[in-house]
User: Fold these one by one.
Assistant:
Number 1:
Amino acid sequence: MRTTWTIYRRELAAYLSSPMGWIVAAAVLLIDGLLFYAQALGPAAGARLSAEVLSRFFWNSSGLVAIAAVALSIRLIVEERQHETLVLLNTSPVRDREIVLGKFLSAFTFLAGITLLTIYMPLLILVNGRISVGQVAVGYLGLLLLGAAVLSVGIFASSLTRHQLVAAVLGSAFVGTLFIFWPMSFVLEPPLSRIVASLSLHGRNWSGFQIGTLHLKDVFYYVATTTFFLLLSTKVLEAKRWE
Amino acid sequence: MLRADRLVKYYGGKRALGPVSFEIGAGETVGILGLNGVGKTTLLRIVATDLRPSGGAIEIDGVDALRDPHAVRTRIGFLPQRPPLYPDMTVGEYLSFAGRLRGMDDAALKRRTAVVEEITHIGHMRNELVRHLSLGYRQRVGVAQAIIHDPAFLILDEPTQGLDPAQVVEMRNMIRDLKARYTVLISSHNLPEISESCDRLMVLDAGRIVATGTEATLSERLLGARRVEVVVRTAGSDSTPPDAADPVAACIRAVAGVREVKQGEAEAGARAYTVSAEGDVRAELCRALVLAGFDVLRLSETREKLETIFLQLVATDGAHDVDHLPA
């Protein structure tokens, strides 16, 4: 656990000292703010119920969080290979799962920080409209769970290659596929449609959070997905030693 | 300290290493010599537990490296060909990170950082970003991370690669210092470096160890003879051929063990001979010449240059199986 903490601190410092981390943060906050203005405050917003505005905010944010999570996670292992620093971790008394967990937690902390910086927008709705704190809290829980799952998929993509571009393409493809499972489920026949829908990273597993309804099965899905891809990343790191 | 038994590594269907078996005793400094692509880095990565072998066994400090690599990693320090440095960290942050990865606490880190900064002469660079360091300093920081936790066994892969001549000299001095503290395994294709730094050499070719031993024993075993250079003062003409008419050559030939005598170049008033002999005949030669009334100006053993030995070892087809020389 101590080495996980050591890796966590190093990676978090790397986010805070690199332009990449700040560019992602700035882009997410800017785009999220613009979308919120357009849909809640701007002249084109129209008359909407505050719960609907909140739901749209979380829907927009979920897409931005997913994109940010891919951008933040891609570098995590691939960069170690590019700089040939993975050998330091590999030849230190650090287990592969500690490497993966430390990196995941650092990316998750940074992503959570960015996500929580958007809180002023739901607070504006809370002050001026009729929504509950619970709705806001459930929505943010959903964003964080979605972000964690996408980060784990990104780390898995990052563990597969030594090229940033390849990792970015792979990560985007994996996440995109998991997102597309939801619309795909409408055109497939049961039972395949049910299986595909239940594996979807968005849609059925996400919609509850968006409207402030907490289902434990949704929480379980995101935790399970995150754990699965983190385990897969650990196995890839182990397997690379046998190459 | 290290025992490797029939280590083999395949990349896909291609054998990159082995089978190789060798032992390294505590306190020894052993050099792996070989041309590029013969498996040096693969062997070192296996020893450093960065890579798992396809077959064989390896034990470091009494611990099975394949069964318990985690325990082995606390006992080793590894400097790969390209030092594993994070460009966004300062030297101090990096050493602290490397130490903490090895489980060191604050007190141990503080104590050891002072020691490694002294050994590697990087104390004044503590607050510099790694990305701003020269190649020589990067290499030093690489060595510093490898010894920060005071390992029992140090593995250095081509430590002088890419350095300029001045930096090479500095690195050699540092390795000399490290020799006194650790058991060291160094790989290189730089022959003088390995010759000067190591107690024993292992010559690797096509993934196999084709010879092991000191430079002197390799020379002796490979060439089958020792060579002694003798310079004798001459009273008159010094152009007499080294045949039976040459009393000096005749005197040398009469010494037991001498195989061949060749005359070489010498200063005016002296005559030089190169003597090939079985075993060390220096004392007998000296005694015989002096008793015969010749003035011996110089008598010394000349070793075959390491380059010659190395090239003969790797150039000889089939040598792999027959020339495995014991230490």
Note: Chain A touches chain B through 25 residues (CB under 8 Å).
Number 2:
Amino acid sequence: MTIQDKTMITININGNEIKLEKPVTVLEAARSAGIKIPTLCYHEQLEKYGGCRLCLVEVEKIPRLQTACTLMVTDGMVVRTETPQIADVRRGILEFLLINHPLDCPYCDKAGECELQDLVEKYGPAKGRYKEKKRKAPESLEDPVIVRNMERCIMCTRCVRMCEGVQGASAIAVIDRGGHSHVEPFSGGKYDCEYCGNCVSVCPVGAIMSRLHRHSYRPWQVKEKTETICPYCGVGCTVVAQVRDDSIKRVIPKIGSPVNNGMLCSRGRFGYEFVGSSERLTSPMIKKNGVLEQATWEEAISLTAKRLGEIKNKYGGSSIAGIASPRCTNEDNYVFQKFMRIALGTNNIDSAARTGYAGTQTFIENIFGQGATANIIAGLSNSDSVLVIGGDPTTINPILGLQIRACSRKGGNILAIGHIKGLEKFNPLTVSPRFYTETVLLEGLVSALKNKKGLSGSIPVLEAKIKDINTSAKEVENRCGIAEKDFIRFTDTLSESLTPAIVLGKDIVQSSGGSYKLMLISAINYLMNARIYLLCERANEQGLLDMGCAPDLLPGYRPLAFAEFRKRYENAWKSPISEKPGLSIFEMVDSAKSNALKAMYIMGENPVFNLPNSKAVTAALKNVDFIVVQDIFLTETGKLADVVFPALSWAEKDGTFTNMERRIQRLRKAVNREGMEDWRIISEVSKNMGVKLNYSGAEEIFQEISRISPLHRDLTYEEIEKGDAIYPYKGEPLRGVMEDIQMHKGSSVNPDGKLYLRLERPLFHSGTLSTKAPALVKIYPEAVASISPSIGEALSLKSGDMVKVSTRTGSLELPVNIDNKLDNLSVMLTNNFENKGAFSLMEYTIDPVTKAPVIDANEVKLEKSVRLDSEVRA
Amino acid sequence: MTRKGLLNEFKDMEKVLLKNIENPNSADINEYKKAGGYSSLPKALERQPKEIIEEVKKAGLRGRGGAGFPVAMKWTFASADPKFPKYLLCNADEGEPGTFKDRPILEKNPHLLIEGMAISGYALGAEYGYIYLRGEYPEAKNILNRAIKQANDNGFLGDNILGKGIKFHLAVHQGAGAYICGEETALIESLEGDKGQPRIKPPFPVNVGVFAKPTVVNNVETLSNIPYIIEIGGDAYSKIGTTDCPGPKLYCVSGHVEKPGVYELPMGTILRDIIYTHCGGIKGGKKLKAVIPGGATTPVLPPDKIDCPMDFVNMPKHGSMLGSGAVIVMDESVCLVKVCYRILKFLEHESCGKCTPCREGTGWLRNILGRVESGEGIEGDIDLMLSVSGNMMGKTFCPLGDGAASVVQNFIKHFRPEFEEHIKNAKCRFK
């Protein structure tokens, strides 16, 4: 910045002198001084347009009226925004907008929060002079979650600019011109898009609206507007839940919120209806004679306390295991692990984070130091290149995906290993290695970068590994099938980058040789001096690790192995902590299989469905004498339980979530519902076992956390509410030096002529939770097996045909979806739909280093089958 | 300011822009060279780019597209911008109704334009040029492409022009028929592959133009003046026409005159002389009723207001504009309400729809004019039209909407009784 830029600029608006530090538009200057200028096409999230002409103002020395939204302030400018002439202009413009706008305000859901209605109320005109027929367009209900009334459209094009310029979906456009201009999906009648609904957010009138609350309330009837955090993925978007009569009517984003700044994805915006689902559990249940029957809270709590106590006394604490939940709050998870450790005396506590996120993070942070993966999401857009590996960020963490798109828009390079569908419109430089040769490609990248960048000597253990890697571009070409020149272009682009970022998905850690690949990616990260982001599928996956819901970690991400830390918590909790590390979630399954595990306490998790090889997990859990499940729905796991507690959902409780940036954010109760928070159920059970875990509320739990966790030192709800709770807070990250990097190369696979089952991570679903949200089910109604056109051709299958998908563990009959972006070795299947999960067909091995399941070697057979009419969903 | 006697002096002025066009092979490079063509380019390349801009400045050349912006000023801005590469765009999207002045250059004298662009490109430091050609000129496209190939083959375009190491590539881009793409920023949007809609200014194209690079957009006629300026020098050139607007000008005359056509005359030729002297007066000896002097959107003039010098400076003083120099002459048989309606119908059709007043206003005005013209007008319609056009004037994004408002205002201003008669008698007497 030059010195000149820093000098103050003065502008005079309506006689008020406004001093500004930097040039802004007249509109921004006016708003900063509290002077209102009406606008319609202007929106702070969008590129300037200057089309509606409502913000015209008088500027001295410029004969023509100027649009305040586009005119940059110059020093000494004199502007008038309220003159008789301007009043006439506004009335005239509004009259133009009204001549073709239907006056169906009594019927329109937007009435009451319609910007056009408000402006006409203020500026007029009071009556119409237009005698001709208005333009007409029928209401469109073609889309599952969006309703369009395009005759209400005023052509501000906010939706189009949002869709193209911010969301990057480019699904809609202005078709035709002049008075015939209308906004329409490129795909014709129906949207072919990401259903983010961000067009809904920016529409100033009732042209594009959510269908979910159509004609169900008027905006002024929604009194309660609770700012909280989205329950779906690890990005942790701020959402505002608008509630009437204890029912969420709408979830909207908030401009200026830290992570998502006014944006939401389809899950966040349209996926809230599970809260009010009639399938929610309402009462505790106890299994009697093999059947779950309703019971009172007292019965269920005392039975649980009694049985757990008996088992602990008889077999010891290590015969009991707990599974924590990435959907539950930090407070829930903290109390849970404390309960496991001091009431049951075991470190057998783990979570589904073990399926990849935890192991990846530990691996990378052991090399680079704690916090190395805690990077600010918004920073991605300022990188000059982003390397994407192991998953589509735009479906797993959609709002993070937007930052990658923004990076491309700003001129950054997107580098992708394997086809990334959500980034294909952003000109990614893609290299797609043959199946099971990703390792060779990564070795090639490390070799090339080593030669270009050299070694700095700062992390000797990693350099020792890097020195051993020598894979030439030729070798990459021969083995991965990537042309040498493409590979060189890829490495050149990457190596020339000055501010690179790496975005890493779970497919890597879940593949054969995952820990070796993580070392290679760490090496790339090291050689490039990049920032690394780990895609995070669940809202509080990070938080539960920070809370110590891991067999080897105490709260504050402190290793159990260090006596010093154990001591600290023993003193704080006034109870001994076992020094024996607990079982990982997969070890729990093995232990159950071998009858060693006698009891399980499962909070907000569904391991039977969410762990690979469901059949084996089910069989193992059936061996366990006593299972307690707390959940909001009766899940597959719940059906195996001896006691089931109904939990409160995300919308019904207070607490905190920690997102993938490790930003701690406040979850606020939006809806009242009878029942107990997860932590309160646990504390009741604990009390019955004679161990007091009494708290008055979530805040008191957090006060305890901030008192004793060295990482969360001095954090308060007040501090968190300021939005300042960014890692490492005021606490201390752990520092240490690694002696050696453990890794496992895995076995090589020859994929010739075989098909493999792979996990699809869809945009519209997340776990099974989203399948209880009718809007998301309408968009993505059922499990489908996606295959490439040539596999389809070979089996004479077209989209919609039924196919039998079989592996060694079982088979499923599913409709098929032909996807021309897929390779000829993969059958893609989601793990979201009841009885149709990919995990039910997958076996796994465990990577000895990351403890994550390796699921990339599941051979699969396809056979054409016939779909019965009764199976077709309406 | 006009110079008395100028008209006579230049009555048979040397043809600059239409030179040699009677030759049936005038579009061929050899014929062009035989007539002295491509002699300015080598001269220009001997000089510094700055000197060429200086020469154009001395010549006082103004843009011939309609706005009359000083060419040297535009060039200076673009050449001073450090961004690279720079682009030179030729606006050949001649879409204003009544305008066909560029067509003879494009079809009969393409090498004049190419030579002009090569010199201009050199002056600006632009290495790439595009001719944005009107969609309805398919023949011109073939002719231009052939001429560009010839120029390339002869070393007048390409990577190493005349062996001087100077680079200038030229390509033709054909529009898809939208009038708005004659507006320079809409033209740029369209050239980039987007929908033709004007952009926010500033930044101006000279700084952020096509592909976000410094870009000069000049009209065909403007660029075709450049070789002549180099040939005779800026000072000599500036003595042609009027002092404020020097140079030759193409006037294209259509409508009820004996000899319609394109006339190359000195800038500032009196409108009455164009009609009565050069074009042989009103066809069939009928009475003149109205003249639109500079293309459909310029203000219409009644017969007693046509003693005006046709240049950028003098026309506004006489209540109209030079525009593109497209003179539309209408005799007493014409219904001016219908003419006004027809122009509004065109502008409504061509409104891009970006800004509210133009998108909604042009259609509304056309509706009212339509009912007045067909005898269904009602009392108050004239005032309503004046009010609606007043709500548009000065509030639209680009000049298209202002033009529409101005058409209605000026037709009513000069011919209000004819509108009133339509409403009163509930019919049109010209039918």
Note: The longest strand of chain B covers residues 166-174.
